[in-house]
Amino acid sequence: MRRLLRNVPFRRLFLGRLVTNAGDSVYYIAAMWLVYDLTGDPAMSGLAGFLSAAPSGLQFLTGPLVDRWKLRHVLVGTQLVQFILICSIPVADALGALSAPLVLVVMPLLALTNQFVYPAQTAALPRIVDRDELVSANSLFSLAYQGVDAGFNALAGVLIAVVGAVTLFLVDAVTFLVAALLFAGVVVPPSAQTDDSSAAETGESGEPGEPDGPVVADGGDDESGEKTDGGGDSDGDSGADADLSYLTSLREGIDYLRGTVVTYIVVGAVVVNFAFGAALASLPAYADGLGGAGVYGAFMAAVAGGMFAGALGASKVKSRRFGRFNIVGFSVSGTLWLASVAAATTANAVALVIALFAVAMVPVGAGNVLISALVQSIVPDRLLGRVSSVIGSAASAAVPFGSLVGGVVAGATSPAVLLVAAGVSLLCLGGYWAAVPTLRRMPSISETETLRI
After folding, report:
1. Do residues 131 and 377 lie in contact, with contact meaning Cβ atoms separated by under 8 Å?
2. pTM for the full model?
3. Which of 179, 320, 393, 411 holds its CA 20 to 30 A away from the CA of 440?
4. Region Disordered: what ranges (predicted)?
5. DSSP code for 146
6. Is the separation of the CB atoms in 70 and 236 below 8 Å?
7. Which CATH number characterizes residue 430's domain?
8. 291 within domain boundaries
9. What is the DSSP letter of 302?
10. pLDDT tens-digit map of 284-298
11. Domain that holds residue 262
């Protein structure tokens, strides 16, 4: 990983990821708690979770744009937009106009802006590192995501109790300005492959194949065919792609995934993400019964911390059979998650509850990194932005609906019911991977040469 960190473009992109993730963590925790604090209603927390997660289902619409637009402009522009949106909360408070509806409007706008950030980073990453470094690079990015989440989720929970949620938004605004400056210095090399070579890799039918050499994302050449620095200053289109309509580009990304193992993976993820969305929506009320805002921050830190640990160890398990890893991993996750809920019924066991919660997320974090590396190493360069955004949208589309249902159920019954359901869903996911031959027989990431079934 030291070699990666000596790579200047990667280092700047990585640092930008660290800072913007810190901002994301703070505003999510602050906003979710602020809505619950202003209303005292778990159903409103569920609505907040729905509005925050719903834009992720639209991420597939951003993929064709990311493949066409200048990557640097996407990365910098999104941070500036988020800065403006975040500032609206403390300004409204200063004017005596702060309300739950305002927070509920700002949250989905922030989330919608974020749907451009991660596909852009995904598209840039394989262009600045070699193929054999993708697992390590994705591990570092996941460490940035989950590690920062773990620290800042916990910090946000503590600071809410000390200085209040509104003050956190002022601090948060600064992080987006810093991230914009870091992304402004990212230089992404021009694409190393032409569209003709990419087309040859997918075949005439557009079926997945394995590209030769490092996988690169589209967008390295401008319309004249001259190379640019690519760090967001390229047009994001080359050759025939410049003539493709937006809908054609979008359809191409969707068509690529048909008949691939990714469809099976996404089906399982949808069910679990629905249950997970419901559990997250119930967490403010659940944590309030265990100690308040500080405990809520600790829960969210446990989720991120567990996934952080999993991402850290992903490179050590990349040679394991992927199917077997997920069968065991999800089964262990579900068992530990349910143990955490059971421990919460014991007096003075909050520390144990949080610890079990964190360990349950370790296999999930490792699996996420390996899936990202799998897609980046096989998907042709010109389709990477589109394909990654389609996968992200499909897998996360159930989260907002889970949040909405979870808030209502938590208010009508008990938040613990949603936590139990999430644990059971993880156990079921392990069983699903064992029951589907295509998933069960998946080889290690390094041995996988195609996504075709």
Report:
1. yes
2. 0.67
3. 393
4. 191-240
5. I
6. yes
7. 1.20.1250.20
8. yes
9. H
10. 889 888 888 788 888
11. 2-188+257-447
Compute how many other C-beta atoms are within 10 angstroms of the C-beta atom of residue 101.
10
How many residues can be counted in the chain?
Answer: 453
pLDDT (tens digit, 9 = 90+) per residue, 214-264? Answer: 333 333 333 333 333 333 344 444 444 444 577 787 788 888 888 888 889
Residue 170, classified by CB atoms within 10 Å of its CB into exposed (0-12), middle (13-18) or buried (19+), is middle
Sign of the torsion angle spanned by Cα atoms 220, 226, 231, 236: negative
User: Three-class SS of residue 234?
Assistant: coil
Contact 53, 400 (CB under 8 A): yes
What's the CA gap between 422 and 297, in Å, rounded? 19
Dig out the tokens for 432 from the structure. 């699903």
pLDDT for 191 equals 54
H or E element: which one contains 384? Answer: helix 384-396
Question: Side-chain half-sphere of 267: how many Cα atoms within 13 Å?
Answer: 12
Coil, strand or helix at 221 = strand
Residue 106 · residue 93 · CB < 8 Å? no
Does the residue 11 lie in any domain?
A: yes
The single-letter DSSP state of residue 218 is S
The tokens for 353 are 């509850």
CA dihedral 256, 262, 267, 268 (to 10 degrees): -170
Could you give the number of structural domains in the chain? 1
Find tokens 């493709």 and name the residue: 244
Q: Position of tokens 């929506």?
A: 281
How crowded is the C-beta side of 383, counted as CA atoms within 13 Å? 29
